[in-house]
Write a structure and sequence with these properties.
Chain A is mostly helical. Helices cover about 60% and strands about 10% of the residues of chain A. Chain A has six helices and three strands. A three-stranded antiparallel beta sheet of chain A has the order 1-3-2. Chains A and B meet through α1, α5 and α6 of A and α1, α5 and α6 of B. Chain A binds a DNA duplex through α4.
DNA sequence: AACCAGTGATTGCTCGGTCAAGCAAATGAA
DNA sequence: TTCATTTGCTTGACCGAGCAATCACTGGTT
């Protein structure tokens, strides 16, 4: 069970309730809104943008599927399909991994890099306007650490 | 374009970057983790739980599809399909709306209420343990308001 | 050398989102 | 009244993404 200790459960108080609902709303709305911006501005869905971006930030502009998937917060199978889409657009190429022939590297092409160069300002603007803007005056570092804790806690407790 | 004013875009500073990445992680991990808890404990997926919960909180334990969809952060067609699943399990029943015969009400059945009664502790525990726990000491009200702003901003700017 | 457990990646199935079409009831104008 | 338009919901098509099963290769054991 999820609550093995079975300490008496307090119902959420109004602030907790409000926060949980608001987070639910944000999780539903934000990715779609940013994706819509990206598609509208550059025909580049957020998932694909994220993959290109992560590739661009790494030496050799290449990554194993595994690493890339977790950098993009995507399942490995989702990553496979995203890379296939990017490959058919010529934005990424796949190479067998030299030190382990089971593995593949996704490699950012020049064309992919160019695509990223033209689209990052939209992404940055969207993130600022739709999200960060609403947190002015917050202690972002403290907040980031709390989210990191929530995002990395064990699956089974 | 998403950035019509075109003010010079500052790249994200490290704190902003960390927050955005951590939020991405949470959006990816949290709903799945809670869903896994709910399915593991009660064979009741999070989406279905959320529908039952929202119905239970309202007088008459009935809601129009529209309202319910937005309360659950689900699209209308997603809601239709969820209610169909709940109906085949006998947890919800559908009735034509009296004051507007185009509309339908989803009505929580006794069986649905019983199902909810036995499963809410798991949900509450999961929300506390996986999310709220990491925000002890925060001003939850202030945080909730910021998320509400981010979650309700216009789609087109 | 031959096997086998473990790991990296891909494929099949389902859920949920969007979009477009359809239908029934309501609303408003002629 | 009648008829066109709008509204509430359902349905189908298609797509993206997650999970579970599977395939492909590795590396250790015998």
């Amino acid at each position: 069970m999820s609550n093995p200790a079975a300490e008496p459960l307090q119902p959420l108080n109004p602030d907790e309730e409000a926060l949980v609902r608001a987070l639910g709303q944000v999780m539903h709305v934000l990715p779609r809104a940013i994706d819509t911006d990206m598609v509208g501005d550059h025909q580049l869905p957020l998932t694909e943008y994220t993959a290109l971006m992560n590739l661009s930030e790494v030496p050799g502009r290449r990554m194993r599927m595994n690493e890339l998937a977790s950098a993009c917060h995507l399942s490995l199978s989702g990553m496979t399909r995203t890379i296939i889409r990017l490959e058919t657009q010529g934005l990424v190429r796949r190479e067998r991994c030299e030190e382990d022939a089971r593995g593949w590297n996704a490699v950012l092409t020049d064309s992919g890099f160019a695509r990223l160069t033209e689209s990052w300002p939209s992404h940055l603007a969207a993130v600022r306007r739709r999200f960060l803007q609403h947190f002015e005056g917050f202690d972002l570092d403290q907040l980031a650490r709390a989210f990191q804790r929530a995002g990395t806690a064990e699956t089974t407790d």
